[in-house]
Amino acid sequence: GEEHYNCISALHKSMRGSDENASLYWLARMLEGGEDPLYVARRLVRFASEDIGLADPLALTQAVAAYQGCHFIGMPECEVILAQCVVYFARAPKSIEVYKAYSNVKECLRMHTGPLPPVPLHLRNAPTRLMKNLGYGKGYKYNPIYKEPVEQDYLPQELKGTDFFKEQKT
């Protein structure tokens, strides 16, 4: 019932608050109460990107490995896998930079009126002669062949200069 959601919320907030003891307590309370370890593992995958993000990019690898470990061996053996992941997450630095930036992109899309801007011609795929003749892919600079990053626009003209990492949601 409701306690299922209360406990996962407490686990998330304890890890977010870097409290490894409380994190282990809420994990154990859930697992000892019969919670599906794969449910907890799925939530840890989300936490890795939502709350830790780029502050520790290996967190996502840890979470996916924990999910796979739980899937392979099940309870009760997988409890220590989840415990290791939960403590790792509680101790990890936190960053919501990507989470906020992606939310800003979604807000931009929702607030847009009229048709969405077209993909710039130089970014379009040109698998046919007709598409090439229409200018698809023309002027695209393939970054890996240059020694230095190249100047090139990747957003539609209407969004030129937009920085979703700095834009604040209204």
From TrEMBL:
One of its GO terms (biological process) is DNA synthesis involved in DNA repair. GO terms for cellular component: nucleus. One of its GO terms (molecular function) is single-stranded DNA helicase activity. InterPro entries: AAA_ATPase_RarA/MGS1/WRNIP1, DNA_pol3_clamp-load_cplx_C, MgsA_C. The keyword Nucleotide-binding applies. Gene3D superfamilies: 1.20.272.10, DNA polymerase III clamp loader subunits, C-terminal domain (1.10.3710.10). Residues 17-169 form the MgsA AAA+ ATPase C-terminal domain. Keywords: ATP-binding, Nucleotide-binding. This is WRIP1 ATPase. It comes from Fregetta grallaria (White-bellied storm-petrel). The gene is Wrnip1.
